[in-house]
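Exercise 7.
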Amino acid sequence: MIFPNDRQFQLFPSPVGLRNYIQYYNVVFPKSDTFAARYTLMPNACGTLSLAFDGTAVAAELWGASISPVLLGAEPNRYQVLLLISLSPYGLYQITRQSQAALAGKRLSLADIDSALFASLHHAFVRAKTTAELVQRCEKILYERMERPVVSDALLLAAAMIADSHGQAQVNEVARRSGYSERQLNRLFLAQIGMNMKHYARLTRFNYVLKHMQSAPCYFAALSQQAGYFDQAHFDKDFKAISGVTPQEYCKTMSDFYYDGTEIYPTISSKED
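Solution. The predicted structure, written as tokens, is:
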């Protein structure tokens, strides 16, 4: 087991075959005050594999596609070591080969969903002596799940079109260009991501807005126009419906929220222990 220290690590996948499905590995050594009581995860349509050691036992969870805010609060502070494997929107389907419709928005025991994956990752977690070794062990396990791609080419094309338009692509146009009907594509999105195309596009646009809020002053009128909303009132309403707070409240209390700004295809990190 790796020993806690003062450093937090975020490492990107090394094998090319993993980069479409895994965004990054985050290894955290929480202190009693690392996470605030109001710490909230913003929805981004992605799934996560979580392993945490509290000094006695390892808790391993599968988090289905993120579809609404999750108040995590200070819960992680009770762990000595926390490993979060952040996946792309369709990464969890490729890894588990299970329909994502029933998993979206839920935190579930990994052992109950995929006992073989739980056993392998648990063994890697308790055996690793360094962060680098932990990631290497996990990559070897996950890479075996990538040998036979199961994610639909039509879904990959549709998801790329939505991402390239920052969530502004019309669903009917996405379907037309993919050669599939809207009903067929929605079935694929529900099974392989955990939500329909419209919801996926909405969260994509929402995260595009969050990205700009993180990196630039909050000029809502200009941002709402840039993101393709009818007007600022529409922007404000949609933002609150997804996040639970207004854009103005978000900007004032940004440190209470976790926004994942990592691209799906990141540059490989060269960080070492």
